[in-house]
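pasting for ref
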Amino acid sequence: MGVHSGAERVLAGLDPEQRSAVTAPAGPVCILAGAGTGKTRAVTSRIAYRALTGDIAGRHVLAVTFTARAAAEMRSRLTVLGVQGVQARTFHAAALRQVRYFAPRLLAGRAMPELLDSKVRVVTLAAAKVGLRADRAAARDLSAEIEWAKSSLVEPGEYVVAAAKALRETPYEPARVADVFDAYERLKRGNGVIDFEDMLRAAVWGIEEHPDVAEQVRNQYRHFVVDEYQDVNPLQQRLLEAWLGGRDDLTVVGDASQTIYSFTGATSSYLVDFPRLHRGATVVRLVRDYRSTPQVVGLANAVISQARGTEARLRLELHGQRRPGPEPELRIFTDEPAEANAVAARCRALVAGGTPAREIAVLFRTNAQSEAYEKALSEAGVPYVLQGAERFFERPEVRQAMIALRAATRSAPADAPLRAAVVDGLTAVGWAPDAPPPGGAARERWEALAALVQLAEEYAAQAEEEPGLTGFTEELARRAAQQHVPTVEGVTLASLHSAKGLEWDAVFLVGLAEGTLPTTYAKTMEQVEEERRLLYVGITRAREWLWLSYATARSPGGRARRPSRFLPQLDRSGGGERAGGAGPARRAERRRPQVVSCRICGATLLAGADRKLGRCPTCPSDIDEELYERLREWRQRVAGAQKVPAYVVFTDATLTALAERKPGRTEELVAIAGIGPRKVGLYGDTVLALVAGATVDEVCPQKTFEI
């Protein structure tokens, strides 16, 4: 096969936008790719097309990604397309390769220093040197702060000011964190080791300060591709600019609406500002979603359409390309155990119906939420795997807490309320029932132990009399044993963050209540918007079947809470079904909200006017113009006789819906949003007669309205 035919084969099957991205001329190219729009196909096809047409050589291309899995996928696709020699690596892998290669030259013949696989041990020592006793959770939070600072090009002496500007929620006073940061750097140098950020900095330093190294690197790599560009941090951007050396053969691909890692130092600003920073850049928008049904796509669009802030400037409206599927389900439960039991029951039904367990995911905001779903799935006999985290009862803090509670059984008063006994027992591991500590790891630890207190409340609520601490510890041991059974394949349990980049046939988005999503720790507008984007990422993980749910209370009889502000305002006025007769999980459900689909493309309709019309505003109208004019004339006569504005009779949107949908029966009439029983009683027969072909004079003689 010749070069020309190979290049044509690459273009075959691409949609117009993908083709534009693939064939864009050399130079700066920004591909704004929505979820499920085929970004990997577009970017690998661009590399292959340019290589097969002789525009570039594969060995001169460096494609950088954020995960080894994505890099491997890119290499695999390029091989299938017939292109060899392209280096597809993560930022860290590319930097490590270069630093190792140039180390003898940069370090006067010495080998590259040992690379730390984790900062925690050295940070713990550094904290001790400045008088802080940091447990593992605190050390993890201090490590995260140091990683954020170094990724943001912030030195120890600059940390306090930089943290204040970034509104960081620091695990200790910023000045104390800066002290630990400084001690950490000194300890590393003294021990002759480096961390991952040092490695990226070494790669930058090698190019910026050594012309011979810069010449060799830039001669090797002349064309660059960056995937997930919305997740780049300042240090990675500095390395990218060092590689480029002022050249502009750069293709970036990203989606600002999937910016969910800003707490690590990632920023979408480089993606947002790309056209401004690269004059004459080609910008291509991929908006055809091949992953999800129009119903899922419509819901995702509705959620992200309300976004505000910088990232919203590059918001994409996706267009579903798959055949219509089932409507997303929104379910409301009285408490979280009922929600978890209902999810487990539906998972079991899906598996029984032929859906592979590996194609089902339950996604939640925090890892501490996993326990209820681990328990419910175990009791339902549904295998599961936990993505990106340890199982609840395998977490170190939970194991320590269970040991402490067993020890507390020897001293707890026999008549002590269970919750009080558990809280008292957890003081042995440093837990207190006040506000959680700052810092992500410390907060996760606190929330995991708080989940044990909640379990105690649920256990007590189900008992006929106040249970003792001994019985509760035995219950915890039973649950732990039940959930420790290893599984090879099962339903995926994952946080929304760890679900990024993955997809499943069926997705459950659970716990969608205020205080959980958005979390109570989201204080600023920017933080709240990132929480909205988390929900958007969760929705776009579903290919076909999507369930959204929340519980009005955490535990039975608990304090009421509101649904997440990000949930679309679905119609709860009718069309729902009351649960009943199907076990406690379904009895706990409230009325199911009615979901309306576009009668033309099948997308979920959420805006009031769209729901009334029964179609998307962008879908073609099939209005009967003559009927619409008769309805308008009739409405004018009625409004004049009643001395009210015309919209009081029916709005323009309702008239349009009537002229498009042409109802022939009362049941079809009331299916149009905005036409309730009262208006059916007043105007129903007349409207049906007009739709059937009657003239205005026949149904509403002019003399009727003469004063």
